Amino acid sequence: MAHTARNKVKLLQRVRRIKGQIEAVERALEEERECGEVMQLLAACRGAIGSLTAEVLEGHVRSHMVDPDGKNAKSRAARELIDVVKTYMR
């Protein structure tokens, strides 16, 4: 997984931010905060995990499947897949 090794520091920073968000959910539940606040925190966690997933998936496609910057049909399909996944994971 060369693409994850290359971006290791950046990816780990994102994971640590997600860990902090999850801990905020835990604190909110322990403190019996309002449902709306807890749901807002959960939505932020979901978005952060989705973005991380999309980034790792994009690296996988770019590094192991095809060159999405190329000019052939497979490259266009790879770009489309990356765009759809990024949109879906938001």
Number of domains: 1
Given the structure, what is the number of helices?
4
Instruction: Give me the strand/helix succession.
Output: HHHH
Judged by helices, strands and strand pairing, the structural class is: mainly alpha
What is the CATH topology assignment? Answer: Methane Monooxygenase Hydroxylase, Chain G, domain 1
CATH architecture: Up-down Bundle
CATH superfamily, please?
A: Metal-sensitive repressor, helix protomer
User: What top-tier CATH class fits best?
Assistant: Mainly Alpha
Descriptive account of the structure:
The chain is mainly alpha-helical and 90 residues long. 84% of the residues lie in helices and 0% in strands. It has a single domain (2-89), classed as Methane Monooxygenase Hydroxylase, Chain G, domain 1, CATH 1.20.58. It has helices at residues 2-6, 8-30, 35-65, 73-89. The two termini are 24 Å apart.
